[in-house]
Amino acid sequence: MLYWFYRHLDVNLFKYITVRAGFAFFIALALTLYLMPLFIRWAKAKKASQPINKFVPKAHLKKKDTPTMGGVVFIFSTLIATLLSAKLNNPYVVGALATLMGFCLIGLSDDYGKVVSGNNLHGLSPRGKFALQLLLALVIGTFLLFYARFNTDFYVPFVKFPLFDMGWGAVIFWALVMVAASNAVNLTDGLDGLATVPSIFALFSLGVIVYVTGNAILSSYLFWPKIIGVGEVAIVASALIGALIGFLWYNCNPAEVFMGDSGSLSVGAFLGYMAVLGKSEILLILIGAIFVIETVSVIAQVGSYKLRGKRIFLMAPIHHHFEMKQWAENKIIVRFWIIAFIANLLALITLKIR
Length: 354
Fold this sequence. Notes:
Elements: H1 2-9, H2 17-45, H3 71-85, H4 91-117, H5 126-146, E1 153-154, E2 164-165, H6 169-188, H7 196-214, H8 216-221, H9 233-251, H10 260-277, H11 284-287, H12 289-308, H13 318-324, H14 329-349
Antiparallel strand pairs: 1-2
Helix pairs in contact: 2-3, 2-9, 3-4, 3-9, 3-10, 4-5, 4-10, 5-6, 6-10, 6-12, 7-9, 7-10, 7-14
C-alpha cells in the first residue's frame, strides 16, 4: 500500500526502502502487542498449552500450562505489515512471504498434534517434518532459480569474487541452508526468550546485508555482490523484528506464551532465505552462532553416545546442560544473548573486510 502511494499518488517519501521498513516495524510491533494478549486468553481457554517433554529438567514442569503457538500471531503481524509496506510484485518478497507462511504451517501442524494429544512427542514425526521442510525449501529454491533468475554464484566471507557457479545444484544448497537454519532455531527455543533475541540480532544483520546487496552504490563500495531487487526483503526483516519484539514482551522470563514450532521453524527458515539472498550462507554460521552451538551440541551428544556409549553434556541441547549445572535460567538466557550480540557485531564488521 505504501509503495502504491509512491507510484500512483507521487508520495516520494515511500519510494525509500528504509522508510517503508520503519513503517513495517511499527505496524508489526503494534499488531503483535495488540493481538498477543487476545491469543493468550483464547489459548488458555482452549487449554492450548505447551506439553512438557519428560526428559527435560524438572524445573520446566512449572511451565506446563503456558500457551504455545504464539508464532502464528507474530508471523501474521509480519505478513500484514509486509503487505502494507513492501513492493508486492517483487519476486524476492513473494519468496519471503512463501517461506514464512509455508514453514509456519508445517510448525503449526506439529504444534497442533502435540496440543491435542497432550504429549510433546505426538506431533509430526521427525522424518515427516523434515520431508515437508525439505520439499518446501526445494520449491522456494526452484522459484528463486527459474522465476526470479537468482544469481547462483557461491561466495565466502573476506573474498571479493565468487568461488564458482553452483548452477542447478544451487537449489539443493539453498534448500539445505533453509532447512538447517529452521531446525537450528527450533532446537534453541527451549528457554524463555532464548531463541527470540538472537533471532532479532540475526534478522538485523541479514537485513543490513540484503539492503547492501540490493543497493548499487553500497554494494559497489563494499565490493559486495549486487543483486537488483533483493533490498526490498529488508522490509520483511524489519517487520519480523518488530513482531518479535512485541512477542518478547510476553515471552521474556517468566514466559506467558511460547512461539512453538509455528514460530521457530518459520523464523529459522526465513533467516536461511535471507542468507541466500545476501550471498551469506557461510557467514550465517557466525550470524546464527547460538543456533549453531545448540545444534552442534545435539549432534555431538548423539554421536558420542552412539559411538562411545558416553555423553559429552549432562543434557542436550547445551542450554539444558547449564540448567543441570544449576545455572539460573535468566543467567543462561542473557549470556547466550550476549554471545549472539557479539557474533553479529563481528559478522557486520566482515562487510568491510573483503
